[in-house]
Amino acid sequence: MKPNGLLIAVALLAILGGLTWWSNKKQAAASKTSDTTTKILDIPGNLIQDIVLKKTAQTIELHREGVNTWKMTQPSPLPADTDAASGIVTTLGTLNADSVVDAKATDLTPYGLQNPSLDVQITESNGKHDGLMIGDETPTGSGSYAKLANDPRVFTIASYAKTNIDKSPNDLRDKRVLTFDSDKLTRVELQGKGEPIEFGKNNQGDWQILKPRPLRADGSQVDTFINALKDARMDMAEDSQKAAAAFAAAPKVGTASVTDANGNQSIEVHKDKDNNYYVKSTAVAGIYKVTGDLGKSFDKGVNDFRSKKLFEFGFSDPSLLEVQGVTYSKAGNDWTAGPKKMDNASVQTLIDKLRDLTATTFEAEPGEEKVFEATVISNQGKRTEKVTITKEGSKYFAKRQDDPSIYGLEAQAVDDLKKAASDVKEAAPPPAAKKK
Q: Are residues 161 and 255 in the same domain?
C-alpha cells in the first residue's frame, strides 16, 4: 500500500472511532434521562392511616384498623374490602406523573382543578398530611390532570391511576356475606340436601363428620364447601328491596353455620326459578343476591363429604407392612421380609396401590369370603391401619379396623392390589467381585 493511502485509512479509522464514542455517550445520556420519573407521591403503604375521597356528591372516609384491615367510616360505618382499600393505598403511595404540563400554574380552571371532581386527603401515622386533586381528563382521554395541594405544578396521571383511586362506597365495602377466619374454624354445620351434617376437627387438625354419626370426612370436599361460604359475595348491582322480595318468595335451599375464634355466624340461602341465589346472614345486615357457586354447594348429602380412601397414610412413609400374612419392615432405605432383603421398587409399587385404594360406593353389609388383608404402620409408628377385603358374588367390599363403614370396591382395583402383592420379590444379589 502507498504511504498516502495508509495515512488516509488511519485518518478515517480515527474519525469513525470518534463518531462511535460520541454516539455511545449520547445514547447513554439519553438513557439516563429517560429513566427519570416524576414522582407525585412516594409514601410507604404501611404509613397511610386515613384516606378521604371528597367528591361532588359525597365523601368517603377510610380508616386503617390493622395491618391489612380497613373500615369505611363515611358515608356509613362498614368493614372495607381489603383488596379495594389496598389498591388505593398502593396507587397513592407510588403515584407517578405521565408528564408535567405546567410548572407553575396560576389558573387551575383549564385543568378542572379549581373545583376538582376528586379531592384526596391522606393522613399518615406520623401526622403528616398530603392533599391530591384530580381534575378533568386530558384531550386524548388517556389520563387526567392532577395537582398536589402544596405544589404549584400540574401533572397528568394515567387513566388507570385515577380508576384505582376513584371508588364508590359499594366498591370499597366488604362484600363478603360471611366474615369468618377459615384458618381458625372449629365447627361447620350444613342443612342442605338430606339430613343435617356437622363437621369438627380431630386432634390432628383433620375434618371429621360428627353428625348425623361419626364418619371419616374427605377433607378436600369439606374445604371446598368452606371456600364456597368464604368466597360468597354480595351482588351490589341488585337493588336491596328487590333482593329482599326475591328472598321471601323463593324456596329455601338450606342453611349453614360456622364457628371460629370470634364466635358463630350463619347463613340462609334461597333459590328462585331463574337459578338466582339470595342470602340472609348474621354477619351483615340486609338480604343480598350472591355471586359464585355458593348455592350449588348446598346440593350435597353426607355421602358427598365422606372419605372414600381406605388408607390415610398419604405420603407419610410407612415403616411396616403386613400383607397377606407376610411382614415387610423398613430399616434405613431397605425393605426386608425376615432375613431377606426385598426389592425396593416392587415394595413401593405395593405401597402405591395401598395408598390409592379408593371406594366407589358405600354398602350396608360386607361379603362373606375374605380375599385380602393388609396392615400399614406409618407416621413414625403412631398410625396403624388395617383393611380387610371381602367378596360376595362378583362384588368386593372393604372394611377398616374400628370403622363401622363398609366400602364398595371395583374388581379391577382389587386385582391390581393382589397383583402388586404377588409381584413383591427379593432384591437381586450384588454383582460378584471381579477377580484380580
A: no
- Verify that 324 and 292 share a domain, yes or no: no
**Residue 153: which CATH number?**
2.60.40
In whole angstroms, give the CA distance from residue 435 to residue 16.
Answer: 73
Q: Is residue 168 domain-shared with residue 49, that is, in the same domain?
A: yes
Question: Nearest to residue 196, comparing CAs of 103, 268, 301?
Answer: 301
107 and 208 inside one domain: no
Alpha-helical runs (H) found in 35-110: 82-93
**E-assigned strand segments in 92-128:** 99-102, 118-124
User: What's the pLDDT score for residue 435?
Assistant: 66
Verify that 193 and 294 share a domain, yes or no: yes
Q: Which residue has the higher pLDDT, 254 or 429?
A: 254
Q: Is the pLDDT of residue 21 over 50?
A: no
CA distances to 53, 192, 310 from 313, in Å: 55, 31, 10
Assigned C-alpha cell, 237: 348491582
Kindly give the interhelix angle for 411-422 and 344-356, rounded to the nearest 10 degrees: 160
Q: Is 161 left (phi over 0), alpha (psi -120 to 50) or beta?
A: alpha
